[in-house]
C-alpha cells in the first residue's frame, strides 16, 4: 500500500498536552494533483492515523469531543485519519498533516459553555402579544372590507 514513516515526531505538544509520537502512525502513499511525472514515482501524500479512542495522552473528555468534532474523519474503531497531499514533497505534506492534527486537538481542548435556559422578560412578552394583537386587528379589518357581494 505505502511505506510507513520512520520520521514520526517523538512528542507533540498541543495546548498544554504532550502527545506521544508512538501514538501517531504515518503512511506515505502516491498522491494525485501537482507533481508532473514525479507524482507517478514517489509516494508524497501522507496518511496520518491517530487512535483517538485508545490514546493515553488525551483526557477522556477531550477524546470524546475530538471524536465528535472530527466526524467522518474518525473510523468506527475511533482512529482519526488525516490525508495530506497538498504539496509536492513528503516533508511538507507530513507537516501539513501534523498541523491539522494539532488543530483538531486544539479545538477539542475547548470546553463548550453549557447553555443556561432563560425566560423572556415580562416586557418582552407584553410587547410580543401587543404586536400580535395589532397584526390580527389589521387582518380582521381587511376581511371586513373585502367587498364580497
Automatic annotation (TrEMBL):
Residues 131-142 have a biased composition (Basic residues). Keywords: Hydrolase. Signal peptide: none annotated. It is an enzyme of class 3 (hydrolase). Pfam families: RF-1. Residues 115-149 are annotated as: Disordered. Transmembrane segments: none annotated. The keyword Magnesium does not apply. Its EC number is 3.1.1.29. Residues 30-46 form the Prokaryotic-type class I peptide chain release factors domain. GO terms for biological process: rescue of stalled ribosome. The keyword Hydrolase applies. It comes from the Bacteria. One of its GO terms (molecular function) is translation release factor activity. This is Peptidyl-tRNA hydrolase ArfB. It comes from Candidatus Defluviicoccus seviourii. The gene is arfB.
